[in-house]
Amino acid sequence: MTAPSFRTQALWLGYLGLLPFVIGFALIVSGNYMVPVTTALQFYAAIILTFVSAIHWGRALNTMDSRLLIISVSFALYAWLCLLVPAFYSLTLLGFGFVTLFIIDFYEYRRRHHWFLRMRVVLTVCVSLTLFSAAIYIGSIHDPLIPSRYLHS
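RE: above sequence
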């Protein structure tokens, strides 16, 4: 596969991965199936955060840099922990996780793979905005400090 066709395919697949975030947020705001959709959004976000952090594990195999292994596993564990708290906090923390991982990726990849970083900027902004917006919406309906069926999966 040529580099341009690989990049095109990666871009399409990356942007298709936004669909569950956008659709999930739209369904939450519409009030349809709020609890199952919120749960699905939380789990999808945790899976994708783990998936994106796994890039560092793959790089560590080539570079033998154990720091990259720690980054990869730390985000996977963080994503799992985010699923153990009420949805308002979970969505907020997952949003911050994506932003933090992007900052790390920016420093790791800023000298190469510029197309990847451009894609990651768009994806990170979209993902974080949908997660933060969903958290704000849920928090506006229910006090995040008072447990309710809408706040915990």
